[in-house]
Amino acid sequence: MTSDEYKATRERLGMTQAALAVALGVSRKAINQREQGGTITQEAAMALELLALRSPKRSRKGENASSSATGGALPASPP
């Protein structure tokens, strides 16, 4: 994961550096360093990705509102 991808994921989650630091149990300085090109260990990348998977889906520009309301899942089709 690159520093740009790390930052984009945090922003997609709608979190500040401070909030992400608390959620991951690290310092805000560590988050800042990762976003400024510092080393992002595999563990740090996986922790952020897991947090993103567990968070409610954020609506993106142009995304269909109905798919956001259902978490992107399609309604069950009749048998």
Secondary-structure map with pairings?
Layout: H1 3-12, H2 17-24, H3 28-35, H4 42-54, H5 65-69
Helix pairs in contact: 2-3
N-to-C series of helices and strands:
HHHHH
What's the main sheet like?
none
**Outline:** globular
Task: Give a count of the beta strands, DSSP E runs of length 2 or more.
Answer: 0
Please state the average pLDDT score: 80
Question: What proportion of the residues form beta strands (DSSP E)?
Answer: under 5%
Helix content: 55-70%
Low-confidence stretches: 59-77
By oligomeric state, this entry counts as single chain
Q: Terminal Cα separation, in Å?
A: 42 Å
Structure classification = mainly alpha
Rg calculated over all Cα atoms? 15 Å
Q: Helix segment count?
A: 5
Task: Provide a compact summary of the structure.
This protein has 79 residues and is mainly alpha-helical.
Description:
- With 79 residues, the chain is mainly α.
- It is 56% helix and 0% strand.
- It contains 5 helices and no strands.
- Helix 2 packs across helix 3 (28-35).
- It is globular and about 30 Å long.
- The protein starts with a helix and ends in a 10-residue tail after the last helix.
- The model is unreliable at 59-77 (pLDDT under 50).
Main traits of this protein?
5 helices, mainly alpha, 79 residues, disordered C terminus
